[in-house]
Amino acid sequence: MTASRYHEVYESWKRDPEAFWAKAAEAIDWDRKWDKVFAADEGVYGRWFSGALCNTCHNAVDRHVASGRADQPALIYDSPVTGTKRSYSYAEFKAEVVALAAVLQDQGVAKGDRVIIYMPMIPQAVFAMLACARLGAVHSVVFGGFAAKELATRIDDCAPKLVISASCGIEPGRVIAYKPLLDGAIEMARNKPEHCIIVQREQLGCELIAGRDIDYATSTEAAKAAGRDVPCVPVAATDPLYILYTSGTTGQPKGVIRDNGGHMVALKWSMDNQFGIEPGEVFWAASDVGWVVGHSYIVYAPLLHGCTTILFEGKPIGTPDAGTFWRVISEHGAVSLFTAPTAFRAIKKEDPKGEFIPKYDLSKFRTLFLAGERADPETVKWAEQRLGVPVIDHWWQTETGSPISQNPVGLGLLPVKYGSPGVPMPGYDVQILDDAGLPVPHGTLGNVVVKLPLPPGCLPTLWHADERFHQAYLNEFPGYYKTADAGYIDDEDYLFIMARTDDIINVAGHRLSTGAMEEVVAEHPDVAECAVVGIGDALKGQVPCGFVVLNSAATRDFQTIEKEVIALVRERIGAVAALKLVIAIKRLPKTRSGKVLRATMQKIADNEPWNMPATIDDPAILDEITAALQARGLGVAQSA
Ligand code: COA
Ligand code: AMP
Known about the structure:
There is one protein chain. The chain contains 18 helices and 31 strands. By secondary structure, the chain is of the alpha/beta class. The protein has two domains: 6-314 and 394-487, Rossmann fold, CATH 3.40.50; 508-631, GMP Synthetase, Chain A, domain 3. The chain has a seven-stranded mixed β-sheet with strand order 5-4-17-16-18-19-20, with helices on both faces. A five-stranded parallel β-sheet has the order 7-6-8-11-12, with helices on both faces. It starts with 5 loop residues before the first helix and ends in a 9-residue tail after the last helix. Coenzyme A binds at residues 144-145, 169, 171, 176, 287-288, 291, 293, 315-317, 339-340, 342-343, 346, 372, 507-510, 540, 575-576, 578. This is Propionyl-CoA synthetase.
């Protein structure tokens, strides 16, 4: 193994962050260079590349067409659920993006306007993101697994001029009609979009509403036939490229803003230095465009880097089998795969000996990247042994847009430590503080924070919510960004991320708010009080478990109520919430000041040692909960 340049590079960032990022920014085409690399007096905590003008679509698409990549595949769509494969060269990709941009322009979409994209994993979803970027419009992609109410909340928050959607999505074994969800959301929303552009899929078409809905295929074909050209609109580096809503502690999701300039600089740098990928190579992130991993590593980073990206509409198992990932890698010559550990746990469960792997030619495959949730050492080792390539766990968040910590492949690998997502990346001064905000010694668990300012590519604030941004991230530890993760740093500066400090849970790599679920469960007429906690799950990492206290007037049998509560959460939040278990208890355990002791409930359910909280109102309640869990076959533990 060659010596890693990591320490040298990290130190060079620490010595002079502005010089470091100015150098990284040379890899991007700018319409106008910045006045200041970092303007500390702008925005909430400062802004990167202030005064610069640029366009993300130019850098991700046009630049490559002009510089010899016109015939190279930009995007390969591989959809085992529909039996479709299609490759788009950079030139074809540009033609699709320009045509859609023309249609958007005809509907009055201009710089700064918001466009919601509610799409399954089809190429049009990616064209839509880039078409918005081309016009300087701000896209907000909403994950297809969210229900109408969640979509409506996002429509109301960002007030889109237009929505781009499709007739249906496809999950194994079922076709999901999107149009009723979209129509329902618009019905509920106060800020109604003027138009919707709809992709009609052959698996299930839909009725278009006259005057409001526009057919995607017909309108873009007409734009192509008319030879429409839509130039890239220069925007300020600090202008928003997109808003991505992510779970907060309430039912109101947080609108994470990504700017144009810093985002491009950070992602381009990460492809080289963190992921070790060369322009022209095939890079695959098996996620969904509705999540941040999809935004950054299916769409923007590979395209900014001149790579070929794979858009995979399928699952790691069942579409058709646990060999699908290896088939895709070998067929398209992918050098890397990025996915969530859950996907590997699913494959391992189905094919424990990895018997599908040798059936495919994986000779080009160099690295497996895992993120989105804690990568358990057992899964990492299984993947390492079966695939014979480095398995790189890395840690980040929707808020940061690219990894905070990693083992940087491009700078030369450091020794792997199982259970650790690596060392802090340039830009991130990661520290561990106790609840009083004081630094803790190495090896001690505490709040993981990042010293301000955050580097390029991180959220500058929340959409129209500076105060919420302060409250959620900056107020608790002045001078630092609170990640809301708990963890520790060892003597060699490796990070270990152990848990969230808020009520966010991570289900199959999907970030969900238990607070949002509680709001829905509490709406059930028979529920007096409730708490939702994340309990351990061998496949999905965590799954939500609802505890409900029924109204004294509730007389129906609990099985019926449980089914109704589960259906209500599915209807309001979406199937992705994955709430499948609701337990009736007599009372919720609370502190004397009325705070529900969710962490203790979770520990009891997970069979972990727990201490009797000193402030508990009535200790007997925990025995009641233990008994209720036991009755459902869930773990119990003795008080430590
Ligand atoms: N549209 C509509 N419904 C969706 C959806 C989408 N885009 N994505 C998921 N769902 C549904 C699923 O069909 C499932 O419905 P069900 O309760 O009727 O079975 C439900 O939401 C829960 O989905 P999930 O938690 O993903 O479970 P699953 O059993 O469908 O799949 C895995 C399990 C492990 C195969 C899958 O979660 C996976 O591949 N995860 C890892 C990769 C990943 O995407 N990570 C994201 C961040 S990197
Ligand atoms: P998301 O915003 O959906 O990317 O979720 C971010 C959260 O997922 C983080 O705050 C962590 O709690 C968790 N997470 C992401 N990657 C990792 C990792 N490699 N190890 C442990 N937790 C992770």
